[in-house]
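ok new one. same drill as before - structure tokens go in, u give me an amino acid for every spot. 69 of them this time. try not to just spam alanines like last time pls lmao
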């Protein structure tokens, strides 16, 4: 399952990269070249950071106390 998720993440990153303007793609490519990775990997890592910053470990719900009626 983990490998499938990794592949899906790269697919999403590729779709996002393909949808960028040429100027945005050039900026991402320049960063990728400076780090020695692919442009898609830069997008994928950015997605990972956004997901982590969205605080997925926060409680999904909360307990609501009601009166005994």
């Amino acid at each position: 399952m983990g490998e499938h998720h990794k592949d899906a993440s790269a697919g999403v990153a590729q779709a996002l990269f393909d949808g960028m303007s040429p100027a945005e793609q050039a900026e991402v490519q320049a960063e990728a070249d400076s780090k020695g990775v692919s442009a898609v990997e830069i997008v994928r890592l950015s997605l990972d950071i956004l997901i982590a910053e969205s605080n997925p470990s926060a409680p999904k719900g909360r307990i609501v106390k009601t009166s005994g009626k």
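Residues 2-18 form the longest helix (17 residues). and btw Helices lie at 2-18, 22-35, 39-53.
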